[in-house]
UniProtKB/TrEMBL annotation:
Alphabetical UniProt keywords: Phosphoprotein
Domain Response regulatory: 4-115
Superkingdom, natural source: Bacteria
Organism: Epilithonimonas pallida
SUPFAM superfamilies hit by this protein: CheY-like
Protein name from the UniProt record: Two component transcriptional regulator, LytTR family
Every HTH LytTR-type domain range: 131-229
Sites bearing 4-aspartylphosphate, chain numbering: D55
InterPro entries on file: 2C-system_Tx_regulators, CheY-like_superfamily, LytTR_DNA-bd_dom, Sig_transdc_resp-reg_receiver
């Protein structure tokens, strides 16, 4: 199912980031961008909205005042540069509280909370991302998920090995793990692999295009069941 959403934000840069992120999530459908709470109220009356991305420091009416005034509001994810309103915001049963600048992986984790419980597994299968964006040399670089062979953690960075090239980007392997499709599996604290790209494997390692990748001790039983050896 698609979640119809609106952005309520008056900063153009923040709007552009949010629109880019939403475009990358298959189950999100952006209905409108509102610069203030008054125009947002109008959109809520015109459309069935499932999810709001709500900034707190808005002109005319502040975000939490707007939220308090809505009867039967849709699900809400707060997007703000200010941490001090987090406790107060949860009085309104918000799904999450995202601090700017918002990383894409944190955004994905947040919007998954908006999915109905009985549809999360279906959406994870049918709406898995075909591509992801990573920052490489200060530019956002589009990577086709189907091209990824494996991912290796290198302290603050990760190395993403593709069929034809390798990229290195500053990222958390644990956060990335949450956004990858189901055919990607963690076999070591430092390695995530594409199960479909395995050439050979045994109890100690897997091999992908002549690269031997160790199976971590704490992952052995899980991987044994998963790969059925």
């Amino acid at each position: 199912m698609n979640l119809k959403c609106i952005i309520i934000e008056d900063e153009p840069l923040a709007v552009n980031v949010m629109k880019d992120y939403i475009q990358q999530i298959p189950f999100l459908e952006l209905i409108a961008v509102c610069n203030d709470a008054i125009s947002a109220m109008q959109k809520l009356s015109e459309h069935q909205i499932d999810l709001m991305f709500l900034d707190l420091h808005l002109p005319k009416v502040k975000g939490l005042d707007f939220l308090a005034a809505i009867k039967n509001p849709p699900k809400v994810i707060i997007t703000t540069a200010y941490h001090e309103f987090a406790v107060e915001s949860y009085k309104y049963q918000v799904l999450d509280y995202l601090l700017k600048p918002i990383e894409f992986e944190r955004f994905v984790t947040s919007v998954l909370k908006a999915l109905p419980v009985d549809s999360k597994s279906d959406n994870q299968k049918t709406n898995e991302p075909e591509f992801l964006f990573f920052t490489v040399n200060k530019k956002r670089t589009k990577i086709q998920v189907s091209e990824i062979l494996y991912i290796e953690s290198q302290k603050e960075n990760i190395k993403i090995v593709l069929r034809e090239k390798t990229i290195i980007t500053r990222h958390s392997i644990s956060e990335l793990e949450k956004t990858l499709p189901s055919d990607f599996i963690r076999i070591h604290r430092s390695f995530i692999i594409s199960k479909n790209k395995i050439d050979t494997f045994d109890s100690q390692s897997v091999e992908i295009q002549n690269k031997s990748i160790p199976i971590g001790r704490n992952y052995k039983n899980y991987i044994k069941d998963l790969l059925e050896y």
